[in-house]
């Protein structure tokens, strides 16, 4: 191997590389107030300027901290996206508590790199000035920091509940667009139908689809999850069933209790003579049977 006019053996290169690595590690170990960590290639050469803290690369992005603020950098050490105060998936975590990659010196080794583990379904919550927003793994801002609260769930839903001025609604995880009005009292995670969710308004529950249309009146005290295409609903102390295909009532809301549909039937109880409780079975057409049909 020739470098200029001098012949250099592989042993000399290894010694030089080792010396550079030791020098780099010593430089990293120095006490600094604003910056102290940077990335090095296998030759011990810096590939970005030092930062106050760094987390390993993932898909071309690494989490960095400078002057107490977090942001993402690319493999050229350039900032990507906005700076923010905190990052988390479910709640507020100060930057000092974010789990680090482990070693003081982080080395770029092609694609074999560990990553910051704070993302759920490709997004995480960030905090700027007390407001919350959503950022993706590439450091791009999906939804601006304008919400009082953002709730990211481990279930793979494309719609994320957000709160503003005490009211709730949903934003699209991929685009950050508000898919419903931010005008509801309560929100839940998107149902397994993937086409609607339960929201509360004026103390009553109803269903809203992914385009923001209200599918039912807000008249129910509770709506359970859909099972076999039907959902148990409650008004006061009485129960009934709601269809999942057209979101209309399949039965009157008159039962003492109702259980989720299984194999086309739901079990209910009604009052008999002298206060007795009787078990009956309801099909999807709302017909009531004394015994479970075979």
Helix fraction?
under 10%
Radius of gyration over all CA atoms, rounded:
29 Å
Return the domain count: 2
Biggest β-sheet strands, sense, barrel: 4 strands, antiparallel
Distance between the termini: 84 Å
Q: What is the 3D form?
A: elongated
Poorly predicted tracts of residues: 1-11, 24-35, 89-117
N-to-C order of helices and strands: EEHEEEEEEEEEEEEEEEEEEEEEEE
Strand content: 35-45%
Strand line-up in the sheet with most strands: 4-5-6-7
Number of helices: 1
The total strand number stands at 25
Specify the structural class. Answer: mainly beta
Mean pLDDT: 75
Describe the structure.
The protein has 294 residues and is mainly beta. The protein folds into 2 domains: 1-152, no CATH class; 220-294, Thrombin, subunit H. Helix content is 7%, strand content 37%. It contains 1 helix and 25 strands. It has a 4-stranded antiparallel β-sheet with strand order 4-5-6-7, with no helix packed on it. Strands 8-10-11-12 form a 4-stranded antiparallel β-sheet, with no helix packed on it. The protein has a 4-stranded antiparallel β-sheet with strand order 22-23-24-25, with no helix packed on it. A hairpin with a 7-residue loop joins strand 4 and strand 5.
